[in-house]
Design a protein that fits this description.
heterodimer; A: 433 residues; alpha+beta; 6-stranded mixed β-barrel; 14 helices; elongated; B: 409 residues; 2 domains; 12 helices
Chain lengths: 433, 409
């Protein structure tokens, strides 16, 4: 029976090519535009570390004298080091980035400016960073202020021209560091652990121990946004300055541990208040957002992107109505044919199904066209200079979603016309013939 | 034109008529909001900045040795001056829209400290000799820094310079002292204080807020000597004729890289810096334009399709009307009036919807209120679109010969 409906539908679609083409075009444009924007939205609002992000939290405390409505987005040195040394989480790491002049240590190599992250040993296991060669440094290296570095594969290609570089030396500023590990290129999207840099930019390329970077303050790794809440007399040696510039992340493997850490953080803030370090009146404020909460708080997904998705959905709705109208017109034009079929014994249900099959064929053709348009749209986005441009690819779930959407849209568009068509009174129409 | 028969016929085709009304309403709502967003983006992208953007070239030099910059900067500047077509050369710490922002808060009272809530946050630009000419700054009042101020200014341990002269933008001056002349007045951040020696036409900050454009121009210039700059001066700026800028940029980058083998030199023409800053916005604007055009096209297709169907369905009636004396004009007018009625119903609903969407966007996104004239503007666009798309089918209807009426059924 289905094959017969299919045959009927194809015949009917062929009969009026212009109308069919209009419907497919409208569906295709609607689906294409909405899939393009939804894909970008899906990419930008995604989980940067699927499977892991639920256990990662960003502790926030407020050492500033004036209570701003939002808690500070960074920590000062004393709080970050206190919390890091307390080791009350399963894993914890301080991190701060900067652009550092880097070159391979051998003579004659050209310097380049690389995104460098000063962090502590737990960074790599906590975020699940994969090593292709060598290993991360240890907590002992952190305290010993070891001059060791981990580099990304792309940095190793640029510095050592594809020879890996493990065990070699690189020169950051005027100091040599020994490369003890090479990581696979790692670019969590968005760049959640340090949002002051562009949220969808490249990953970090060189990693060095945090305390080493403080020892060599002239490297200038002081983050991408330095926010001071008191008079500062020095913008390189920030250890004792009233400045917020560090990121601190913790891993807490169970909700109970997260709860316990919240309590710990609260106690810590009270203790600091008692010591006179926190001068705000009232009970001190703390927070422990998870990765997704943190991204949400910071409004990481550009509001333009979600606006675009709304507009594209509105556009899809216009296309949907358009297709519904045209399908209705098409079915009603065939009242005689439908009446004959009804008179010959077809039930309403069968007419209904037949009409829906036709709608779905239009929808699927529109879906294919929409997919092509979405691919073209994403190609266009990849050629814009936006910082997320190179991420704009159609992945498998979105590919499947395109067809799911076109199926649903065409069914919705076909329902009303099909329902009208199956309620044609055959006798009235047959009389006319 | 009698409209009662039109109503009678529309009543018989309620659902298709309703669909077309809804489609037009939705199209009108999306169109008004999208065009409004486009105009806002375009305004932002076109924010004026009183520097010579077209002729400006910059090369950033990073990784220099702070102890040597006192001799290296004058040497580099001299070398850059030798490039053919270069009219002015200077060095500065950052450029408008470069995203490299150095901010500080100042007050107008002698006891202002940085943490004061009433202070005004400004972007700091540090600039060397003839920086005003290289950037193409327009002095409105007072003067640019003199040789002594430029030579004496330096950084000690604090992030503020050891000088007492400042040049600020007109907008910043208005924010500090509304309605008064800023010349000779002083801004404070204890223990530092700076006296305004000049006011320049508004120059954008390195980073601007898209929601509060009043603050986009709060920038101040401080003099800075090469020797005391502690690495803060890293933007070499060159000014030349716009047609030479690409060549100047390449040659300047090459020259600085040769002279400073240990540092990283990167050249850019200023228009690219501006374009990159607004890239997301302009891609958004283009996408909105595309959506509007395609949506209007789809709506037009819908109207053409539906009207064509109605024309086909009513061939006999049209024939009869023609046979009993209606002219072609009458038939055309019938379909045009019908379309006008449907579109009017659509835009009335659509204007309400457009207003509602705007209110929603104002609450959930950084969006301002849509000026009222966008609504009638959108309505007019859809009226025109409706009339344009009905023209073809109506003409086809008008060409139905009266003889159709006499054919047997």
């Amino acid at each position: 029976m289905f094959a017969y409906y299919l045959d009927l539908a194809l015949r009917s679609l062929k009969q009026n090519r212009v109308l069919t083409a209009l419907m497919v075009l409208a569906m295709g444009l609607g689906i294409g535009a909405s899939m393009t924007t939804l894909t970008v939205f899906h990419l930008l609002s995604g989980d940067p570390l699927p499977g892991r992000s639920g256990q990662l939290f960003y502790p926030q405390v407020d050492p500033t004298p004036t209570a701003a409505p939002a808690l500070p987005g960074n920590m000062n040195y004393i709080d970050a080091v206190n919390l890091w040394q307390a080791r009350r989480a399963d894993r914890q790491a301080i991190m701060v980035g900067g652009n550092v002049k880097t070159k391979a240590a051998q003579a004659g190599s050209r310097p380049m400016s690389l995104h460098t992250l000063a962090t502590t040993a737990d960074f790599f296991p906590m975020f699940g960073v994969r090593f292709t060669q060598g290993n991360a440094w240890t907590a002992a290296d952190d305290l010993a202020k070891a001059r060791v570095a981990v580099i990304s594969r792309s940095a190793s290609d640029r510095l050592f021209h594809g020879e890996g570089g493990l065990g070699q030396s690189i020169r950051l500023g005027q100091w040599n560091f020994r490369v003890i590990g090479v990581i696979d290129d790692w670019r969590p999207t968005p760049h959640f652990y340090e949002l002051d840099r562009e949220s969808y930019g490249d990953g970090d390329e060189v990693f060095i121990p945090f305390l080493t970077s403080r020892d060599l303050a002239e490297l200038g790794i002081t983050g991408y946004s330095l926010n001071c809440y008191g008079n500062t007399m020095d913008d390189l040696h920030l250890e004792n300055q009233p400045c917020l510039w560090l990121n601190f992340w913790v891993e807490l493997d169970s909700p109970a541990k997260a709860q316990a850490y919240r309590q710990f953080l609260d106690n810590y803030a009270r203790e600091q208040q008692a010591l006179g370090r926190y001068v705000q009146a009232g009970s001190p404020r703390t927070a422990l957002p998870s990765v997704m909460q943190w991204l949400d708080q910071n409004g990481v997904v550009p509001s333009d992107v979600s606006l675009k998705s709304w507009i594209a959905l509105g556009f899809l709705l216009v296309c949907l109505m358009n297709t519904t109208g045209l399908l209705l017109v098409k079915f009603l034009r065939r009242t005689t044919e439908i009446s004959v079929r009804r008179a010959l014994g077809a039930s309403r249900q069968q007419i209904f199904l037949q009409c829906l099959v036709e709608a779905v064929i239009v929808g699927m053709a529109g879906g294919v066209l929409g997919l092509l348009l979405a691919l073209a749209g994403l190609w266009g986005i990849r050629h814009t200079p936006a910082d997320y441009a190179d991420l704009a690819h159609l992945d498998l779930p979105m590919f499947a979603a395109t067809f799911a959407i076109s199926l649903v849209v065409s069914l919705v568009a076909g329902l009303l016309p099909a329902w009208r068509a199956c309620h044609i009174a055959p006798a009235l129409q047959l009389k006319v013939i | 034109m009698e409209i009662r028969p039109i109503f009678a016929s529309l009543r018989k085709h309620r659902i298709p008529a309703l669909l077309i009304v809804l489609e037009i309403a939705l199209a009108c709502a999306v169109l008004c909001n999208a065009v409004f967003m486009i105009s806002q983006r375009v305004n932002d992208i076109r924010l004026p900045s009183a520097i010579d953007e077209q002729g400006l070239v910059t090369v950033t030099l990073r990784g220099t040795d702070d102890k040597l910059v006192g001799s290296e900067i004058p040497r580099n500047l001299a070398a850059l001056r030798g490039i053919a077509g270069v009219q002015q050369v200077a060095i500065t710490s950052s450029l408008p829209l470069s995203t490299n922002n150095w901010g500080w808060s100042f007050g107008v009272n002698a006891d202002s400290v940085i943490a004061n809530q009433k202070n005004i946050n400004v972007s700091l630009y540090f600039i060397g000799e003839s920086g005003d000419k290289a950037l193409g700054l327009h002095m409105l009042q007072g003067r640019f820094f003199n040789a002594d101020e430029l030579a004496d200014s330096k950084f000690d341990t604090a992030p503020l310079p050891e000088t007492h002269a400042v040049v600020m933008t007109h907008a910043a001056a208005e924010n500090f002292w509304p309605g008064q002349s800023a010349l000779g007045k002083t801004i404070y951040s204890k223990p530092y204080y700076y006296t305004v020696v000049g006011v320049v036409e508004d120059v954008l900050r390195p980073n601007i807020s898209t929601t509060n454009t009043r603050k986009s121009y709060d920038a101040v210039y401080f003099p800075m000597s090469a020797a005391g700059s502690k690495g803060a001066l890293s933007y070499y700026i060159l000014r030349g004729a716009p047609q030479d800028r690409d060549r100047i940029m390449r040659e300047a980058e090459q020259k600085l890289a040769e002279l400073n083998p240990g540092a990283v030199a990167k050249g850019q023409i200023y228009v690219d810096i501006r374009e990159k800053y607004f890239a997301n916005m302009s891609s958004m604007a283009w996408m909105l334009v595309l959506v509007c055009v395609v949506m209007l096209a789809v709506t037009a297709f819908g109207i053409v399709g539906l009207t064509s169907f109605w024309v086909g369905q009513r061939r006999r009636q049209i024939g009869i009307r023609r046979a009993v004396g209606a002219t072609r004009r009458h038939i055309m007018q019938y379909f045009q009036t019908e379309n006008l009625l449907l579109t009017t119903a659509g835009v009335v609903v659509g204007m309400g919807l457009a207003f509602g969407i705007n209110v929603y966007l104002m609450q959930h996104y950084e969006m301002s209120r849509m000026p009222w004239y966008y609504l009638p503007g959108g309505a007019l666009a859809l009226w025109l679109l409706g009339q344009a798309s009905v023209f073809g089918p109506a003409q086809k209807a008008a060409s139905v010969p009266p003889v159709v009426a006499t054919r047997s059924v």
